[in-house]
Amino acid sequence: MSPFTTWDIVRNLLLATQWTVLLSLIAFAGGAVVALAALLARTSRNRWARRGTVFYIELFQGTPLLMQLFLFFFGLSLLGLNVPPWLAAAVALILWTGAFLAEIWRGCVEAIPRGQWEASASLAQSYFEQMRYVILPQALRIAVPPTVGFSVQVVKATALTSIIGFVELSKASTMITNATFQPFVVYGFAALIYFALCWPLSKSSQLLERKLNVAHRRH
Amino acid sequence: MAVGLDFGALADYAPVFAKGVAVTCELTLVVGGLGLALGILCAWVRTQGPRVIRPFVSIYVELIRNTPFLIQLFFIFFGLPAVGVSLGEMEAAILAMVVNLGAYACEIIRAGIEATPRGQYEASASLAMSRLQTFRYVVLRPALQRIWPALTSQLVIVMFGSAVCSQIAVEDITFAANFIQSRNFRAFEAYIAATLLYLALALLLRQGMRMLALVLFPRRRAVR
């Protein structure tokens, strides 16, 4: 009935997967930068910087990502800016990722014993020197497994951008379904592709956790 | 076209939002109950259940945790009719959300069960309790108490996920916002209102879970 072979379906889905991967990378890289800034503000000595960051984090963690996407997509165009779906998707995902990574990393920074802060302060190091030379190198070690684990959430979150019209794996699945009338096959393959992207990340997060924990215990 | 904000334009649509809030609450409560039950069952299988079905539960959990909810929902709503299982939008939404929450809750509850001190098992064995009795009367409640905060967060995440169900025409808060902005073109106001409603519901849900914990776990646990 339909001129689409299974290979056609898979091939087109894989083409769209590029955009899922690209958007995930952009969201993750941008989110990491935002999170680092938020982390520094969140742990700084300036009370207003701390409060502002808490507000940002609560706002983005306390509302659905879909709403954030809609607000960026429809809201900014109301202000007279012409926002293409990819831009709204990227900005919303970067801010969303940033809010979560900032909290994850704050946990890692706070896991560093107080004495490390005190010792570096007694060496007359400034806040940024303390962070750069003493705290972050140690926090980084604890931060790797949960950060890799969160990247799975980022990949899955990109699926939502299909709703504002960004053509990635999920949107492509809907479009191919509309052409082939084979939702079972198409969404099944889409799920498998997402699984192939996410599962290695989940597994490596688990392995890293085990490995880094062992190293930690030996000290 | 630059326009100012006008939340007064939403006043006429208050009933639409009210319906949306009711549907979102209904989804969250039904799914919370069923998903928690599924999670407990799966966690039991993975820790102490029959070894034959353990791999299947593991596959289920890994599959759900590593694919987006949107795809799961579309697979159930659009895909299953192709093999003869036709569901209404509300049933499909509930099924997808229960299956989703079940997998996450399984992992969370399993962590709680595995943190049970050895002595608890030994003590209940010395009272001649069967494995099922031990699980039901000794292990489960403290395990749930241990992971209650994580479970609360997961439930909030599931409620946020329910926004996606508007895509299969479930008339929840997001659906209401979409409907309103398609009528009066006040997209920004409609979505801000919807976002605030979600924020309020999330706070309410957290408070509700805190109160439920007081009822479920009246005594502070002695053994950590």
* Main pleated sheet of chain A: none
The count of β-strands of chain B is 0
Proportion of residues in extended strands of chain A: under 5%
Overall CATH architecture of chain A: Orthogonal Bundle
| CATH topology grouping of the domain at 24-170 in chain B | MetI-like fold
Overall pLDDT confidence of chain B: 91
CATH class term of the domain at 24-170 in chain B: Mainly Alpha
Structural class estimated from helices and strands of chain B: mainly alpha
CATH superfamily of chain A: MetI-like
Largest interface: A-B, 40 and 39 residues
**At the first level of CATH, what is the class of chain A?**
Mainly Alpha
Shape of chain A: flat
- Low-confidence parts of chain A: none
SSE topology string of chain A: HHHHHHHH
Keywords, separated by commas or semicolons:
heterodimer, A: about 220 residues, mainly alpha, MetI-like fold, 8 helices, flat, B: about 220 residues, about 75% helix
